[in-house]
TrEMBL record:
Matching SUPFAM superfamilies: Periplasmic binding protein-like II (SSF53850)
Pfam families: Phosphonate-bd (PF12974)
Keyword check for Signal: yes
InterPro entries: UCP027386_ABC_sbc_TM0202 (IPR027024)
Record PANTHER family: ABC TRANSPORTER, SUBSTRATE-BINDING LIPOPROTEIN, ALIPHATIC SULFONATES-BINDING PROTEIN-RELATED
Leader sequence residues: 1-26
PROSITE patterns: PROKAR_LIPOPROTEIN
Domain of life: Bacteria
Name used for this protein in its record: ABC transporter substrate-binding protein
Keywords attached to this entry: Signal
């Protein structure tokens, strides 16, 4: 019964994590990507049963949170781990809770929720993706947050992280989100974009890599504001999107092995930011993004990082404080304890 309660609660929280699995094409959702296919084993990176028994079982979402992993997945060292791609966070949750997965690249607030619902059985190992939200405009009116006063913004994610981020940035810039701007919520990014295409709206808040796709579809559309930069100005820390969460028992079973995995992950992220063409090809190969060409254009704006220790903790604590103030349920009802932060 306890496991059923955990799964039920965390599945509800998974509805708040739409941002990190942003759509990879104009036909995909800005929430969890609309691909609902069965989980996909990463080609050539899935270990044999004998190796898998010793190596980590790692899950990734199709979208920015996993782009930094692909170079490790494709490496010789990657053969020591089992990587599986999923279309939505709620597919990963029960497997992680039951111990059928060891680690997962997931939205940050879901990691906090899992910490609460598993009574501290998981910890966050690193931040892997910073902010991927952007304000786009078909026009030249918006040059700063102040210019959003009196404007209508179409976006997705009502009651979830995108709404909390937008409202916080507006409020900290002296704008009342309820009276100074009009925020219209759509079910997915394609709906928001269609309003801009039709001329019904000129301003939208969208995630990467959907933004890159949208810029190629709407003549005159431009990035007006980078919400990661705007968050940093008012919060004094980075806006976090995705993290790698790991079960503590998996780390304790082989701490040196996990440290080696982290070293490989750090090298993979470095390659993702330096070898855009090669990383983009791997993103397509492993089904993380539909087309390599789109991935290559989007990678520089996806803010892929490998942030650990005190820096990771500072950014996450500030981020969780904002989410908790907006809606305690978005981080599992309480703020994570210090034991949530691996190596910090």
């Amino acid at each position: 019964m306890k496991l059923k309660r955990i799964l039920s609660a965390v599945a509800a929280a998974a509805l708040c994590v739409s941002l990190a699995a942003c759509g990879s094409s104009a036909s995909s959702s800005s929430a969890a990507t609309s691909e609902a296919a069965a989980p996909t084993a990463a080609p050539e990176a899935t270990a044999s049963p004998e190796t898998a028994a010793q190596g980590l079982r790692v899950a990734g979402l199709k979208g920015p949170t996993t782009m930094g992993l692909v170079n490790l997945m494709d490496s010789e060292a990657g053969a020591d781990y089992t990587f599986t791609m999923y279309g939505a966070a709620d597919e990963i949750v029960p497997l992680l809770v039951k111990g059928e997965l060891d680690a997962a690249a997931i939205p940050a607030n879901l990691a906090a929720t899992l910490y609460q619902k598993t009574e501290g059985a998981v910890e966050v190992a690193c931040v892997n993706t910073l902010g991927v939200l952007y304000i786009v405009e078909n026009g030249e009116t918006v040059q700063s947050v102040a210019d959003l006063q009196g404007q209508t913004i179409v976006t997705t994610g009502k009651g979830t992280t995108p709404e909390y981020v937008l409202r916080y940035v507006l409020s900290e810039n002296g704008l009342d989100p309820d009276t100074d701007v009009t925020i219209e919520y759509c079910s997915e990014a394609t709906e928001a974009l269609s309003q801009v295409q039709a001329g019904a709206a000129t301003i939208a808040m969208l995630p990467q890599p959907f933004v890159t796709s949208a810029l190629s579809q709407v003549e005159g559309l431009r990035v007006a504001l980078d919400m990661n930069e705007e968050w940093q100005k008012v919060a004094g820390s980075q806006l976090v999107t995705g993290v790698l969460v790991v079960r503590k028992d998996a780390v304790e079973a082989d701490p040196e092995g996990f440290a080696a995995f982290m070293d490989g992950y750090a090298a993979s992220v470095e390659a993702a930011n330096s070898d855009l063409e090669g990383t983009a090809a791997l993103c397509e190969s492993y089904g993380i993004v539909a087309k390599a060409a789109l991935a290559q254009k989007a990678l520089p704006q996806c803010n892929i990082v490998f942030e650990t220790g005190a820096e990771m903790k500072t950014d996450l604590v500030n981020y969780f404080d904002v989410l908790f103030a907006a809606d305690p349920a978005s981080v599992g009802g309480a703020l994570p304890g210090d034991d949530f932060y691996y190596g910090a």
